[in-house]
Design a protein that fits this description.
Number of strands: 31
Strand content: 15-25%
Structural class: alpha/beta
Oligomer: single chain
Strand order of the largest sheet: 5-4-19-18-17-6-7
Number of helices: 27
Largest sheet: 7 strands, mixed
Distance between the termini: 42 Å
Radius of gyration: 26 Å
């Protein structure tokens, strides 16, 4: 619901109102403008600052994966305020609180302001790097020399590119530069993000991507570990419409923790961690036994009767499917015995609630949705839970339907020029080596889009580096990432990075990963200083939104994905290897045909090249139409045509082209991976720690949770969640983030807390505010106890984001020496959902609590 503004003349500001202006107000104070009446006015509530003072400039926020189109209000060259870009049909003028923290980030005095080099040759967490400032020339000369050493020694496969968050300019540094240098080792962050979330949609409907959800036309929303108001995609949009959504739709939330979305839901199902798959298959059982499948999509029994009865097999010939494949086979293999009573014992939920939610969900069909987040799937056996929860959409006909789930709309950006002509024999030989993350090996299928090794196993790269398997890494470059903080058991990454002889980190702030760098290169901030673009979908549209400089950079910073690769290419050309520079010179200005002559021109020309079919009227293909580059740039965002519902029915792209309950697509992928390693599918599954054997491996099914630690020694299960103001772990050096930690129920300002149910706390003698230690078999953290009824008994809920020992003097208690709170990843053991390559973050860590 929209909130009424304060009455004219009132000095009262609501907490919600404070969130709206906090970023701007802090920026004003930080700029020493508290006594300036004009700048003070810019921090006041209302949709627009003082007229005639400054200008709204279009850009993009990448503070989370919502990737909202934004406008920044700029006064005398200073960014003052942020709002949603009203030209976007994805998020519109809506904005979440995270965007305002960007103002503190861009003006953060702890940012890296100039290139730096390490003076202490010893590397380790307890080793002061002794960084000293150097010029860009010295920094890039050093990097170029190290790369040339690899090429001169035919060791280009010992080069590694580590990518974190990105814009779609990424392939310039991540793909093209890595290929032309000659390495197979470009490792993305994707497998510590949400790859298992994509597994279920792909192996049912050939969609290896995030879905969008038609919330304004739905009648029932079933959320699996997703919290759209806090930490899912398109938070700004959902915050703006959720009041209307809950007026017309029933919302049920499956989550061991009372999330913000759960607190506003009609049903909260506090499932036991790791038992989501049991709940999903039981709900599927109810939908079929109650006759609630959507006949237009699924089909029906030939005689019109319902033969789905608990415990009884069904003749496959008796059911005629339309747009789906294998429903009866799924029933016979998995569902017939999975009653709500069976699931109640597994999940800890009442059987009548399971039945009630399933029937409500089914009766709302097809305008209903099963919305799968990270929690149920980023588990050791999460691939099958991902399939089970997503398969509910198939049963009720919600796939590609009004009020249901959709894929991304079509967009018309284009790939950068092919690098093939610039990949020489040295590079070709280097690229033939195996990847450092072991993707595609027997124990790591990583079946992205049906291909063995098609995905990435991000966290396993640390072990590959440590064990020099398949080879050592001598030179590495990382950007917009911090794996020594963001990956489970990050101590492994500390040792791995200490082992690499030469590492370059491109970053805005000196993070935990920077601590192990030999060269640090300061990067532009994505929302205020960078050229780029991203694309994302919601609300039945897809937008392509521009990152662009809205202010002059405060310090001597360069853009990670364009300017820095160009400058490095120039240095390599000076040393006789001009392949990369010649390739980059193919990125000509589409308007003038001019070849870029420097990094700044390259950044703009490459962006114009990639987006030309959006802004060039001659090449128009659909969606918003512009009169040229300047029209697109000033608008800041392109919107697709509306979503074409039902266009993919029986055109899914699976092996059968249908929505697959019995996944012929997964069967082909698993058989192919097994044949590659001259073994059986059953052996692959056993190696990868799954329980499935035989035909059940090809249908969504229940697998028991796989946790580390005995229940007797470690009686609690860690339930990690994202804080409301997390900018993907990059918020912690913002004072607003620390001051407003209690926006997450149960949390405390400037503290790191573990939320314990009072029932559990009383049993172990823990009181609210106690200093406590959380221990798992792989590590420990120290934080405060918070007694909170929103944590399911037997679990400890803890938000991710605190525990930095670097990143800045706010993020860390003592920079480089003492953490502020504890990093959840220190107590999360290294495990994987190996079919997708994802790291396990949920239902994996058993812990104990001590004062």
């Amino acid at each position: 619901m929209t909130q009424k503004p304060s009455e004219p003349g009132s000095t009262a500001v609501s907490r919600r109102g404070f969130l709206k202006i906090a970023g701007a107000a802090t920026a004003v104070v930080a700029l020493g403008a508290s006594s300036n009446p004009v700048l003070r006015a810019l921090a006041e509530t209302g949709s627009s600052p003082v007229n005639g003072i400054g200008k709204w400039k279009a850009t993009t926020c990448q503070g989370c994966t919502s990737w909202c189109a934004k406008q920044v209000y700029v006064v005398n060259g200073r960014a003052i305020k942020v709002r949603g870009n009203p030209n976007s049909k994805v998020n519109g003028i809506a904005s979440c609180p995270r965007a305002h923290l960007g103002l503190q980030q861009v003006y953060d005095p702890d940012r890296v302001k100039t290139p730096m080099k390490r003076t202490n040759p010893n590397k380790g967490r307890n080793e002061d790097p002794g960084f000293v400032p150097i010029s860009w020339d010295e920094a890039l000369d050093t990097v170029a020399d190290k790369i040339m050493e690899l090429r001169n020694n035919n060791e280009t496969h010992k080069y590694l590119l580590l990518r974190g968050r990105y814009s779609y300019m990424r392939d310039i540094i991540y793909d093209r530069m890595t290929k032309i240098i000659g390495s197979p080792n470009n490792i993305s962050h994707s497998a510590i993000c949400a790859e298992a979330e994509k597994f279920g949609p792909y192996y049912t409907e050939a969609l290896w991507d995030y879905r969008q959800y038609d919330v304004m036309n739905t009648r029932y929303i079933l959320l699996w570990g997703a919290d759209p108001l806090v930490a899912n995609r398109q938070i700004s949009y959902y915050l703006s419409v959720w009041g209307d959504v809950i007026d017309r739709a029933t919302v049920a939330v499956v989550d061991p923790r009372l999330s913000i979305s759960a607190s506003k839901a009609d049903e909260w199902l506090p499932v036991k961690p790791g038992e989501d798959g049991a709940l999903a298959v039981a709900m599927a059982h109810v939908l079929l036994t109650e006759g609630l499948w959507h006949k237009e999509f699924v089909g029906d029994f030939r005689d019109g009767a319902n033969h789905f009865e608990a415990g009884n097999e069904v003749n496959e010939e008796d059911f005629e499917e339309i747009h789906t494949h294998g429903l009866v086979k799924w029933w016979n293999i998995e569902l017939k015995d999975k009653t709500p009573e069976w699931a109640a014992e597994k999940t800890g939920l009442p059987a009548d609630q399971i039945r009630r939610v399933a029937i409500g969900f089914g009766k709302a069909a097809p305008h209903t949705m099963s919305w799968v987040g990270r929690g149920p799937v980023m588990q050791t056996r999460g691939a099958y839970a991902s399939m089970a929860a997503h398969a509910l959409n198939g049963i009720v006909g919600a796939v590609d339907n009004v009020g249901g789930t959709m894929k991304a709309n079509k967009e018309y950006t284009q790939s950068f020029p092919d690098p093939g002509n610039f990949i020489d024999d040295i590079a070709k030989a280097g690229a033939k080596h195996k990847k450092i993350d072991h993707r595609g090996t027997k124990g790591f299928p990583a079946l992205n889009a049906g291909k063995s090794g098609g995905g990435v196993v991000t966290n396993n790269a640390a072990d590959g580096i440590l064990n020099e398997d398949p080879n050592e890494i001598k030179v590495a470059i990382g950007y917009m990432n911090n794996f020594t903080f963001s990956a489970p058991q990050p101590e492994r990454w500390e040792r791995a990075m200490a082992k690499i002889p030469f590492f370059v980190h491109i970053t805005t702030n000196a993070s935990e990963l920077s601590w192990f760098a030999d060269i640090i290169l300061p990067s532009t901030h994505h929302m205020f200083e960078k050229w780029g673009y991203v694309k994302v979908h919601a609300n039945g549209y897809r937008h392509v939104t521009l990152n662009q400089p809205v202010i002059e950079p405060l310090w001597d910073v360069k853009t990670d994905e364009t300017e820095i690769p160009w400058m490095l290419a120039e240095k390599l050309a000076d040393r006789g290897f001009d392949n990369l520079l010649r390739h980059y010179k193919e990125y000509k200005d589409p308007e003038t045909g001019k070849v870029p002559e420097n990094g700044s021109e390259f950044a703009i020309y490459a962006l114009k090249y990639a987006t030309q079919q959006l802004w060039d009227p001659v090449q128009y293909k659909g969606g918003d139409k512009f009169n040229g580059w300047e029209d697109f740039r000033s608008t800041g965002v392109w919107n697709s045509d509306p979503y074409p519902f039902k266009a993919r029915w029986s055109k899914m792209g699976t092996k059968t082209d249908k929505f697959e309950f019995y996944s012929e697509t997964l069967k082909a992928a698993l058989v192919g991976h097994a044949e590659k390693h001259e073994t059986t599918v059953d052996d692959i599954l056993a190696t990868c720690k799954y329980q499935a054997r035989g035909e059940i491996a090809f249908v969504p099914h229940y697998e028991e949770p796989y946790m580390i630690g005995s229940a007797s020694e470690y009686p609690f299960v860690l339930v990690e969640h994202k804080a409301r103001l997390n900018r993907e772990g990059r918020s912690a050096n913002c004072t607003l983030y620390q001051e407003l930690k209690d926006l997450d129920p149960g949390d405390m300002p400037w503290e790191d807390v573990a939320k314990i149910n009072p029932i559990d706390a009383s049993k172990i003698g823990i009181k609210d505010g106690d200093d406590i230690k959380l221990s798992s078999p792989t590590g420990e953290v120290r934080c405060k106890a918070s007694l909170w009824e929103g944590a399911r008994p037997g679990t400890i809920a803890k938000s991710y984001g605190q525990g930095h020992w670097a990143y800045g003097k706010v993020a860390a208690k003592v920079f480089g020496k003492e953490q502020r709170g504890g990093n959840n990843n220190d107590i999360i053991p290294v495990e994987y959902d190996r079919l997708s390559g994802s790291s396990a973050f949920y239902a994996v860590a058993r812990i104990k609590v001590e004062k």
